[in-house]
Amino acid sequence: MTLEQFTTKVEELEVLIQSGRDYKQSEVNAKELLAILSIMEESHSLSEIETRILIALAQSYRMRGVSQEVLPIAEKALAIAERIGNKELQAQAYSSVGMAYSTIADNTKAIESFHKAHEIFLAVNNRKQVAMLLYNIAVSYFQKAEYYSSLENFQKALFIAEQLNEPIIVALQLSKIGLVYSYLADYQMAVIQYQEAISIYQQHNYQIGLLSCYGNIGNLYREIRDYSRAIDYLNQALLIAQELEDKRNIAVTFGNLGISYNDSGDYVNAEKYFTNAIILEEELGNKVGLASNYLNLGNCLERQKQYEQALEYYQKSLLIAEQINQQHFISIIKGNIGSIFTNQSFEGFSPQKGEKLIMESININNVLGTRANNIVMLLCLAELYEYQKRWEEFAIYYKQYHVLEKEVQSEQTVKQAQLMEQQRKIHEAERDRQVKLARFQEQEKIFHNIVPVSIADRLLNGEKTMADSFDNVSMFFSDIVGFTHLASQISAKELVEGLNAIFTEFDHIATKHSLEKIKTIGDSYMAACGVPEQRDDHAMRTVQFALDIQEMMKNKTIGEKKNRISIRIGLHCGSAIAGIIGEKKFAYDLWGDAVNTAARMESHGEAGKIHVSEEFVRELLMMNGELSTEEKFSVAIPLSLTINHSLLTIIPRGEMEIKGKGMMKTYFLESVSAP
């Protein structure tokens, strides 16, 4: 297998993982590629490829919830990237390590790794990846329930995405900002953000983004117990996931629909969707998804007092949770199982088993800091001790229950006050973002007036040196005849206002014919066609521009005394180099033969006339179909041709000495009324 073929296989692997269709197959393919790589002769290129494969493999394991495999693979990728000194891959590997820590809920270390990746992408001015790293940092803060820090980073990412004009990344940030507002119980603001994101996704037909937004809005409505709307949005998400054949999101949406039906009391549909989710999660090998859906199905059955079946699914969930060391799941499951065993209506009523499991759940919650979950557990224990007439223990745990309930209520009050303060800061930050964005858009507008849009975008994206070669462009030069004498006859204000009025009209005509204004020097105006975007019809467009300018300047006056003015115009086409030089007060400029010769055509021209080179006439005839590429031509008498319904006469001027160019054949172009 050649290096090119091997690289193609790696690219196919990355695409397969991004599609989310078959993570197990992705892992098989990745391992096969690594096996082939191990017997190939080591090289720098292969080390880069190995890093990419490891990053892809880590991502696949993470998406399947195989958390114990992710971190070692990501760290190996990072070690290789650092050894070969590839900054781009180092940043990707740090990001992969951050994702690995996020998978095992170590969000502090995740944020550290994301920041390292962020610093590298910032240093190489990869602003798109900077935005995505800010997104990852924001997600980690969100998982730590530090909602203000989360929102702050989402908004930073949003601002960069808006500057880069990356609508999909903009929509991604908006959808996550909506999720944060949802957790802050600001549901109205959450829905506004989601709807903005949906509008962008619909405009760009980005189905995976729509899927995510519909799912989030569905879960939001479930939180406020509007189950009908919740199910409607979740079904829209499900439809998209099925159209995309995205098994992972189909499974997630099945699970969310199951929770919505379960909370609404429709246990038949809840069981159906939980079961469907379990089948898919088993197929995908997603252990986190399996544990979650087994737990939810067990809860659904427990609510229906089908305790034996509920225990069966709780035990399945517990087994998986212990395998993948998900302590949060373990505490919930043990608490649920314990509550069943302490339920006197359960045939397998076992106070000893129940007490042991509830105690274990309480201890895990104490370690995790999820003490609020212990309120129900302490009450359950107190009721058990009351039933057993263990009055001393009943008093202890009943008191603990009331103390914890008050503490949690107090904490929630403090938290609510903190959230209100955070929301105030959030709204201030949002206003600041809008002001900054408005300023940036105004600056961008000014920037686009200074240099062409495509060049401005390249500069904003960090391109330092800009030099583009063009084989064939058309150049326009003009200047005002007798300008020096005219300037001495009128006031400075009249002069500036007059030139501004004239050149503003030039600018409008240039835009009409797709010419790029390059610059003005005193009374001279320079424009080009075919830069920075190449155009096959550059000569024809330049002729139309020159003819319109010629017509506009007929009977043109300047100043209060209506001083008559006229211009000379010179045209030529040929090769040129375009670019930007310097860092301060820079401008887009052109250099080369096309520029110099067009300037000579203007300076050797006559007032009120369009003076062109032989090369320009040849180009014009070829573009108009009057001459083939191989044909030679010689115009000895005036030649007429029609360009876009306008009759044009080419008048030979003969050979003449052109400064710096020697003897050249040149021509005048004149517009005549169509017969």
Question: What is the CA-CA span between the terminal residues?
Answer: 69 Å
The main β sheet shows up as:
9 strands, mixed
CATH architecture type of the domain at 462-672: 2-Layer Sandwich
Please compute the radius of gyration using only Cα atoms: 36 Å
Structure description:
With 675 residues, the chain is α+β, with helices and mostly antiparallel strands. Among the domains are: 1-125, Serine Threonine Protein Phosphatase 5, Tetratricopeptide repeat (Alpha Horseshoe); 462-672, Alpha-Beta Plaits, CATH 3.30.70.1230. The chain contains 26 helices and eleven strands. The protein has helices spanning 3-19, 23-38, 44-64, 67-84, 87-103, 107-123, 127-143, 147-163, 167-183, 187-203, 207-223, 227-243, 247-264, 267-284, 287-303, 307-323, 327-341, 351-368, 374-387, 391-450, 453-460, 483-489, 492-512, 538-552, 593-603, 614-623; strands spanning 466-480, 516-521, 524-529, 557-558, 563-564, 567-580, 588-591, 610-613, 639-643, 646-658, 662-672. The strands form two sheets. Strands 1, 2, 3, 6, 7, 8, 9, 10 and 11 form a nine-stranded mixed beta sheet that branches. The mean pLDDT is 85.
SSE arrangement:
Elements: H1 3-19, H2 23-38, H3 44-64, H4 67-84, H5 87-103, H6 107-123, H7 127-143, H8 147-163, H9 167-183, H10 187-203, H11 207-223, H12 227-243, H13 247-264, H14 267-284, H15 287-303, H16 307-323, H17 327-341, H18 351-368, H19 374-387, H20 391-450, H21 453-460, E1 466-480, H22 483-489, H23 492-512, E2 516-521, E3 524-529, H24 538-552, E4 557-558, E5 563-564, E6 567-580, E7 588-591, H25 593-603, E8 610-613, H26 614-623, E9 639-643, E10 646-658, E11 662-672
Parallel strand pairs: 6-8
Antiparallel strand pairs: 1-3, 1-6, 2-3, 4-5, 6-7, 8-11, 9-10, 10-11
Helix pairs in contact: 1-2, 1-3, 2-3, 3-4, 3-5, 4-5, 5-6, 6-7, 7-8, 7-9, 8-9, 8-20, 9-10, 9-11, 10-11, 11-12, 11-13, 12-13, 13-14, 13-15, 14-15, 15-16, 15-17, 16-17, 17-18, 18-19, 19-20, 23-24
